[in-house]
Amino acid sequence: DVKVTQSSRYLVKRTGEKVFLECVQDMDHENMFWYRQDPGLGLRLIYFSYDVKMKEKGDIPEGYSVSREKKERFSLILESASTNQTSMYLCASSKYWASGGRDTQYFGPGTRLTVL
Amino acid sequence: EDKVVQSPLSLVVHEGDTVTLNCSYEVTNFRSLLWYKQEKKAPTFLFMLTSSGIEKKSGRLSSILDKKELSSILNITATQTGDSAIYLCAVEAGDTGNQFYFGTGTSLTVIP
Fold it and tell me: Where are the beta strands (DSSP E) in A42-115?
């Protein structure tokens, strides 16, 4: 079974703190993604990575950065947390897409971050 | 163990056909069920269902939740080639709603 794990299920931080969210997958997937999910807005893509040390901005990258030093690990970093970053953060991974193809994304359980 | 199972795994239909996708779940403290359409990168939100028996509808897509049967269906009528995608079902659960469980999706291909 594919397994995607996230370092914390529930996290509370203060405004201005630096926050690290870690995601690890065990299926040797090339693609990894970070999303946030908010009521009424569904999943919004923050960043994704299609290979080690490669990253691309998603739809809402402002206020976030990412790091992919190893294939199995994709970190989301909030340099200076703000209250509007209170959300559910979901990590996912998938195999590399062949041209015109698509592959299922496997999701982690999510981290609910509250910024006070 | 909490889980979400979708069926069928894949489906190939002709344009104009009607399809029904299934999602069943076993979770503790169910809060909501969500349907997504995934084409390339990010899944696109379709519906969120929290109450049993209420149909959510958007154009040719509709969905119903059956909390007694712990399942949901997603219907697509008069399918078009643009409906080709992976359809994901996710369930939010837990005392504070801080756990998501995703199915592995149904891959739908609509051929002209």
Answer: 42-51, 54-57, 65-70, 73-78, 87-94, 106-107, 111-115
